[in-house]
Write a structure and sequence with these properties.
By secondary structure, this protein is an alpha+beta fold. The protein is built from nine helices and eight strands. It has one domain. It is 39% helix and 12% strand.
């Protein structure tokens, strides 16, 4: 990561990342002063979208196009892990909605939590960080079996598409879209991205002593969690935070999150 000439109050950073199949090169301009991880989320999303775009291009050339399409919302009934900064972002987004839409979205979140409480799953969801991998897999299957749509899903399409979390951006399949409503290891072929921004964002601002810890929240608990934890970690120089994100993305950490 190199830094070209700067403009007042801004810093422009050269990006050069990639893998065997492709390389991503470009420039990102960010604030030169102190920023929070929440303020840099759009940069993380831009990186995620660019990585997805390049991966899709490779798959197209291999004859394995992406089958995801507008109106296919089966994946929006999965247990979606989002990063803590994105949970705060979703709460802010909801709070900025005009009425009566804000109240309608909040009511959907409340109804969703009631459904999982009735199903006996809400307690596990609130303690999902304590689960083993096997327990997490069982919870994810039990969650999907409830067929409860994401509170932001409308007419089987995402109503906050531009602000959707990284996990949603990076969930792609090449198998027939209709198979996602009855997913098995044999019927659904997920795209394995060479670099996953979700994992990098989930490690953002993690103390060095526990640098591989990925902090995440089930999407349906985003409002509840963010109301209890409303503040981002202290602001830091934008270039420093961006370097940390890129280091996380390109391999200085090793633990993979559940997504």
């Amino acid at each position: 990561m190199t830094t070209p000439a700067e403009s007042p109050g801004k810093v422009t950073v050269d990006i050069n990342i990639g893998c065997n199949e492709w390389k991503l090169q470009g420039r990102i301009t960010i604030a030169a002063g102190l920023v929070t991880v929440g303020e840099l989320l759009p940069v993380a999303w831009m990186l995620s979208d660019a990585i997805v775009k390049e991966s899709v291009k490779v798959l197209d050339e291999m004859g394995s196009p992406i089958s995801c399409k507008k109106g296919c919302g089966a994946c929006c009934r999965n247990l979606v892990a989002i990063s803590q900064p994105e949970a705060r972002r979703l709460r802010q987004l909801v709070e900025e909605l005009p009425e009566p839409r804000r109240s309608a979205i909040r009511a959907r979140f409340s109804a969703t939590l009631e459904k999982f409480a009735t199903a006996g799953l809400l307690g596990q969801l609130r303690k999902s960080d304590d689960l083993s991998d096997d327990e997490y897999g069982e919870l994810a299957q039990a969650y999907f079996d409830q067929k409860v749509a994401c509170p932001f899903l409308e007419e089987e399409s995402c109503s906050i598409y531009a602000e959707r979390p990284t996990t949603c951006r990076e969930y792609l399949v090449t198998s027939p879209a209709e198979n996602c409503s009855r997913p098995t290891a044999d019927t659904v072929r997920r795209v394995r991205l060479p670099l996953k921004v979700f994992n990098a964002v989930a490690r953002w601002q993690t103390p060095p002593a526990v640098h591989v810890l990925e902090r995440w929240v089930p999407l349906i608990l985003a409002l509840e969690w963010a109301e209890a934890h409303p503040n981002d970690p202290p602001a830091r120089p934008g270039q420093e935070l961006l370097r940390e994100l890129l280091d996380n993305l390109t391999g200085k950490t090793t633990t993979e999150a559940r997504s």
